[in-house]
Amino acid sequence: MKNFLIRFNAPQVDIGLLFLRVSGAFMLLHVHGWPKIVHYSHELTVIEDPFGLGAQFSLLAAIFAEVVCPVLIAIGLLTRFACLPVLAVLLVSMFIVHPQWSIAEGQFGWLLMVIFGAIAFCGPGKYALGSAIGRKELS
């Protein structure tokens, strides 16, 4: 009976991880990443530069974390690695750029940290490109 329950629940977990990856990646890409690409020139004038590396570097780093990484996460390729820049940008945003925000004001950022933190801990699951090509190190 115990083996049956383990086998029965495994596909649900993999479907849950797929849903978490795709929905989290879509939200990050749609709300933050895509607008940075479409309005690149404007974003250069308004992006925060918390480390003094220049607006262009900060914007390109944000685009990498909010466009490239979500695509990798959604398809399940280099998933855990791709979560790291996302989490880094979110941590910088929440603790350095907007430290005055309450949990309510920064709830989207906190929820994204929960989503991508869970994916980083759990991995992409079975329904991922890295798993499909049979190379665990790509997940």
From TrEMBL:
Subcellular location: Cell membrane
InterPro entries on file: DoxX, DoxX-like_oxidoreductase
Keywords: Cell membrane, Membrane, Transmembrane, Transmembrane helix
Lineage start: Bacteria, Pseudomonadati, Pseudomonadota, Betaproteobacteria, Burkholderiales
GO CC entries: plasma membrane
Keyword Transmembrane helix (UniProt): yes
Main location: membrane
PANTHER family: INNER MEMBRANE PROTEIN YPHA-RELATED, OXIDOREDUCTASE CATD-RELATED
The keyword Transmembrane is annotated on this UniProt entry: yes
First and last residue of the signal peptide: none
Transmembrane spans: 12-31, 51-75, 82-101, 107-129
Protein name: Putative oxidoreductase
Organism: Herminiimonas fonticola
Record Pfam families: DoxX (PF07681)
Membrane topology (UniProt): Multi-pass membrane protein
Coiled-coil segments on the chain, per record: none
Family: Belongs to the DoxX family.
